[in-house]
Amino acid sequence: MDDALFGKFPRPPCAELLGLQLLDYNSDERWARFAFEGRREFLNPAGFIQGGILSAMLDDTMGPTVLLASRGTLFTATINLNVSFLQPAKPGRLLAEGRVVSMGKTIAFVQATLTDQQGLTLATGTASARLVPVEKLPPANPAAAKT
């Protein structure tokens, strides 16, 4: 199913780092579900996943949700990101759902929720993002662009 998400360009390194996995999506209803791997390397001194990592997971939920809702034609550049941390996140599989609230010609408004496997809501996020046609993305291999 990752081909539906990354079929037109290489899988980003941040997706690899966070263990991003596309689980399900509906382009018409503009939602997508993902899984992330809350690795031990992400823990803060208290033994919970650091908030910046959770924010990255939410961001990496909202952007791909727009990509899927646009049927692979629009990439996002986050303008602002607002995150609410509701519960501490423990290591392990984390689940996320993103939803496009509104999408115009140049800006999208998106929301996401991050939960543990038991369904406990850990964090929520909202973002506004600039819409960028995927053909305007830089090449995956900058050396290839020079030839």
Describe, in short, the structure shown.
With 147 residues, this protein is α+β, with helices and mostly antiparallel strands. The protein is built from four helices and six strands. The protein has a six-stranded antiparallel beta sheet with strand order 1-2-4-5-6-3, with helices on one face.
Oligomer: single chain
- Count of alpha and pi helical runs: 4
Looking at CATH, the homologous superfamily is Hotdog Thioesterase
What percent strand? 35-45%
Low-confidence stretches: 143-147
CATH architectural label: Roll
Euclidean distance between termini CA atoms? 32 Å
CATH domain topology: Thiol Ester Dehydrase, Chain A
Instruction: Choose one word for the global shape.
Output: globular
What is the alpha-carbon Rg in Å? 15 Å
Q: Helix content range of the residues, please?
A: 10-25%
Instruction: Give the SSE order as H and E letters.
Output: HHEEHEEEEH
Please provide the count of β strands. 6
The average pLDDT value, as a whole number, equals 91
Alpha-beta content class: alpha+beta
Strand order of the largest sheet: 1-2-4-5-6-3
Overall number of domains: 1
CATH class term: Alpha Beta
Largest sheet: 6 strands, antiparallel
